[in-house]
């Protein structure tokens, strides 16, 4: 029985007291999808967030008791959009249970709610956990049977958050609904949108704002007339477009993203490190080239091809500098030339050196100079990223300037403190851009605390204490 069935464009109450859904064509395509990953790319006010609770309710009916997840990029966005839509259906309309906020934001079905959902009480709790991507702990607590991710395309919804959600879904092989507008060219585009044509487990449903019958055509035309083309295409047509303010706008996925390959053993290795108690990041580069024999017993000369390949990445927290040093050097055929940290982070460099990895201070202090050096490497096709470095690729394609009220880029970097891998790349790129040497670099002399037991060129070796 529907106790508070307020009339809505989404549904109407049938004569038998049940609900008849009135989805528009785009919503029906998402509803009918049998894919494990359903990605709804929709224009603003296209009806994506209002669709999420209905999909999740049906998934609960299908999968039975257990834990489920609703995740947004930030807590304010959860409280403003996804949570009200959810409670309107689950609490007010269907009266399935109650919501408790605080540190553990959870909606729990009552016994009557379970009977109303399944026809009888199957036993076992039904709980929906609410989390946001800026709080990793909120994403690690449940073993979920399905998840609805609202506005997962936003910059604040990082790849690491998506991966944490997938760990919660892995045991049950739970389905995922993503409802979002495109915001950047990061992980959502690379891992799901680009892979959908090749992976039957992924289905993308795209519709424009005007797919919603309630969206005024005049408003669509106003946006088309007044907004920059990139913004209109992204926010009203749900088309992935290179946004204004993208810092590495010269990065071309067809050129700079390359399939992973075994790095030849004679290629010099370099690593950039960004220090942090919560997030320490490292990116690993190899310099392409060949060894040229020299007369007599002279040491062979390394001749550089002038191209560098990022072949590995690292991001971890909660470890001592000594532990970070061990994981960073693990599997490398020799100690890489390392640069990292700001000029004020000398203590970090000392801690890493004591832990077995000598890290040099980068040659430039200014952030913008470092960005320009990496930009130059991309633009001149000197720097490439292997496709297994998904975290770095996500950061490159979502790294952008804040925009002013006229949609023009400012000097400020949006969410600057969240791009740890790119900071690491900037440190090592600053050194490599000015190195310009074709000689095999002398590796720093240091006493390593670990011994390599497998000289693998892919970094798969183990280290013995």
Protein model, in words:
There is one protein chain. Strands 5-6-7-4-8-9-3-10 form an eight-stranded mixed sheet. 30% of the residues lie in helices and 24% in strands. The longest helix has 19 residues, at 75-93. The chain has 465 residues and is of the alpha/beta class. A hairpin with a 5-residue loop joins β12 and β13. The protein has two domains: 11-235, P-loop containing nucleotide triphosphate hydrolases (Rossmann fold), CATH 3.40.50; 253-464, Nucleotidyltransferase, domain 5 (2-Layer Sandwich). Residues 1-6 and 437-465 have low confidence and may be disordered. It is built from 14 helices and 21 strands.
Core attributes:
8-stranded mixed β-sheet, 14 helices, 465 residues, single chain, Rossmann fold, 7-stranded mixed β-sheet, Nucleotidyltransferase, domain 5, 24% strand, 2 domains, alpha/beta
Q: What is the CATH architecture descriptor of the largest domain?
A: 3-Layer(aba) Sandwich
Shape: elongated
Number of strand segments = 21
Largest sheet: 8 strands, mixed
Please give the CATH class of the largest domain. Answer: Alpha Beta
CATH superfamily of the largest domain: P-loop containing nucleotide triphosphate hydrolases
Give me the secondary-structure category: alpha/beta
Average pLDDT rating: 88
Helical fraction equals 25-40%
Any idea how many domains? 2
Taking all Cα atoms into account, the compactness measure Rg is 26 Å
Summed up, the helix count is 14
| Poorly predicted runs of 5 or more residues | 1-6, 437-465
Distance between the termini: 66 Å
Please name the CATH topology of the largest domain: Rossmann fold
Content of β-strand? 15-25%
């Amino acid at each position: 029985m529907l106790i508070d069935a307020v009339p809505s464009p989404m549904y109407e109450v049938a004569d038998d007291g049940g609900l008849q859904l009135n989805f528009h064509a785009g919503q029906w395509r998402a509803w009918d999808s049998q894919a494990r990953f359903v990605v709804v790319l929709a224009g603003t006010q296209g009806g994506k967030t209002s669709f999420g609770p209905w999909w999740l309710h049906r998934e609960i009916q299908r999968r039975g008791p257990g834990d489920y997840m609703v995740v947004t990029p930030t807590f304010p966005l959860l409280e403003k959009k996804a949570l009200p839509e959810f409670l309107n259906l689950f609490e007010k309309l269907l009266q399935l249970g109650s919501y408790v906020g605080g540190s553990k934001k959870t909606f729990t079905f009552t016994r009557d709610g379970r009977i109303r959902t399944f026809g009888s009480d199957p036993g076992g709790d039904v709980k929906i956990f609410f989390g946001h991507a800026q709080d990793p702990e909120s994403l690690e607590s449940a073993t979920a049977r399905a998840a609805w991710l609202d506005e997962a395309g936003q910059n604040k919804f990082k790849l690491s958050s998506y991966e944490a959600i997938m760990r919660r879904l892995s045991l049950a092989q739970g389905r995922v609904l993503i409802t979002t507008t495109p915001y950047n060219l990061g992980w959502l585009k690379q891992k799901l949108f680009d892979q959908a044509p090749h992976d039957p487990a992924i289905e993308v449903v795209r519709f424009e704002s005007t797919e919603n019958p309630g969206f005024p055509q005049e408003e669509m035309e106003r946006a088309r007339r007044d907004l920059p083309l990139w913004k209109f295409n992204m926010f009203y047509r749900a088309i992935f477009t290179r946004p204004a303010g993208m810092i590495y706008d010269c990065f071309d996925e067809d050129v700079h993203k390359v399939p992973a390959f075994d790095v030849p053993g004679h290629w010099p290795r370099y690593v950039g490190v960004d220090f942090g108690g919560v997030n320490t990041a490292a990116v690993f580069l190899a310099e392409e080239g060949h060894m040229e024999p020299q007369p007599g017993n002279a040491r062979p000369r390394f001749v550089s091809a002038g191209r560098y390949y990022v072949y590995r990445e690292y991001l971890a927290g909660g470890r001592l500098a000594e532990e970070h040093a061990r994981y960073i050097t693990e599997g490398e055929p020799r100690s890489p030339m390392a640069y990292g940290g700001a000029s004020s982070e000398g203590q970090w460099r000392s801690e890493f050196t004591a832990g077995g990895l000598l890290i040099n201070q980068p040659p430039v202090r200014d952030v913008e100079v470092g960005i320009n050096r990496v930009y130059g490497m991309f633009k001149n096709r000197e720097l490439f990223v292997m496709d297994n470095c998904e975290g770095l690729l996500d950061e490159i394609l979502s790294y952008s300037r804040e925009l002013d009220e006229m949609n023009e880029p400012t000097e400020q970097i949006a969410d600057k403190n969240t791009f740890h891998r790119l900071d690491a790349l900037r440190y090592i790129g600053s050194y490599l851009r000015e190195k310009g040497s074709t000689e095999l670099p002398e590796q720093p002399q240091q006493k390593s605390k670990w011994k390599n037991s497998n000289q693998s060129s892919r970094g798969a070796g183990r280290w013995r204490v």
